Amino acid sequence: MVSWQTRTAKLLSRLTIRQSLKRELSIADMRERIRSMERFFPSVPDDIRIENEPGLSHCDAEWLTPSSGPTERVILHLPGGAFMTRFVRAERLLLARMCRATNARGRLVFYRLAPENPYPAGLDDCMEAYQQILDLGIPPEHLIISGVSAGGCLALSVLLKARDLDLPMPAGAILMSPAADMTDESTDGSRVANAARDAVLSLERGDEIRRLYLGEHVELANHPYISPVLADYTGLPPLFFQVSGSEILLDDSHRCAERARACGVPAEVEVWDRMPHGWQALSFAPESGRAIARLADFIRERCP
Amino acid sequence: MSTTQSSKPSNPGHAFMRALRQDHVGLSRVMREIDTQAHRLTEDPEGARAILVDAFRYLLRYHHAYHHPREDRLFAHIRARDDELEQTLQKLSHEHESGEQETERLADDLTHASSEDLAGEYGAALVNRINDYLRHTRTHMRHEETVFYSRAERVLTDEDWLAITADDGPDDPITDIRTMRASYPALARSLDDPTSHLGLNRPERSSSNELRLQVLALTDLYGGLMYEAIDLTRTNFRRLKSARGPVSLVRAAGTIYADNLRFAGQCVTRPSRWAVNTGAGLIVGWLKPYMNDQQDRTGEQFGGE
Fold first, then answer.
1. Closest to A269 (Cβ–Cβ): which among B25, B195, B223?
2. Residue B305's pLDDT is what?
3. Domain B14-192, architecture per CATH
4. Chain A residues within 8 A of B21 when measuring between CB atoms
5. Cis ω on the peptide bond leading into residue A70 (within 30° of 0)?
6. Residue A216: its pLDDT value, please?
7. Ranges of chain B whose pLDDT falls below 50
8. What is the dihedral of CA A62, A46, A277, B137, to 10 degrees?
9. In chain A, which residues have their Cβ closer than 8 Å to the Cβ of B30?
């Protein structure tokens, strides 16, 4: 049974975010609209301290620390937003709730956005954040990387690139509805079957999003750092996917998990019924609390 | 910003503390499974009951039988060295007792209830109790981590550790898949499944699914029109505000009139286009089985010849 709070959020998303994604994209307008929608998200609770230092070279980033006395765990979180925009307050609150549920410190990275900074700027920022955490002496076995939507794609890209650079792997990764296929050639599957049911996303402007994210390098769309569904997952840590059964991105999670398992990497997929994309961030909805409690269980499993 | 070092000082209690933390790995995994099954209980009582009973038995036979007594021994020694934590540790020990009693009650109630009971109000009440149980257990684990896990190794002496680690029990069986399969088969099967479905218990009838899709399409249609109406109103205001003098005002009014007329046209044509397309789709849907039937018969006739 879906709660009334989630139903309301779905309807509002269908009437706002989905509508703007179906129309001609004006990035400035979309960012402005998101800023006005953000007023409805509460701020981070007082028991979470936010610090900016040490920062990153090209983008803002924050450390979130619960006052309850954190353990050694650190969550590196990469926000979503189609690589072009982001819900700052919602993502901060999501990470704060994850940190509180796991006694972890959180690192929130506001990586550079397209189209002003196309690929690989965003990935470079996330890699810098990852390297910084290692340089600070935080043991990788206490580190979890997480991301929502485009952030989920970047989280996978960071893992793949870190492995390719022989950097130590974190203890695990949380991937909330990652947008992991920029080749976008599907003629069937969830991108088609869920096109009408998805309350938030619409791929009618998928080509445009890809062009804006990749800039002049559209031919890179099938590179594993951009479309991790095509990657070799050998050597990656355990992956934990949460995705809704009514999302167009449902298959991205399944395909990534299948490839990971084929490479011997444990990968779990949780398919939630009738949730909107990114429901984990809807702090007022009971399903969001339940999703975060389950993510926290996974974090405790990976970082005892 | 402070950093944390991975290498801990050599300490006889280090292995013991690592084992306690490791126990929370199994406990967290089983919490997640209990959460999954609790939400299916009223819709699939028999499937969910078997896994839940296994899960509660596992908790009773390992966590309540060995893990919590280990922690209680640790609490007692910390209390002797650091009276600042007296109340908190007493509360945590009390939670171990009440948790064990509730685990037993839940296992019993699940075992003795009929399928009909579990599918009805009794089952719904049981789900609420399980949800409370999960919330308390997770909060309890969080408190343990913050309150004493970091402090224990600082305040306890070698003698304390010798007393605490004496008479230790077995390791968590969840780490051995064969033991799990033998002792808790339903739970082991479920833990082995890499895909969980949360809430996908009642398959939708295709007719209600079709109806839902049509409602969603209609919401998209009118949502889109509303979205454009708001945009148009905003643009119209901007045009009127930017008018300087009567000529530009007339020009703005003309543009507004033309745009509004175009939008009014869209408000008429889009819903009618949707109605025609949907109607055609429904007719094709109704005719399809009949047409397939006809095709099959023709095929049979040719096959027969």
1. B195
2. 44
3. Up-down Bundle (1.20)
4. 304
5. no
6. 84
7. 1-9, 304-305
8. 110
9. none
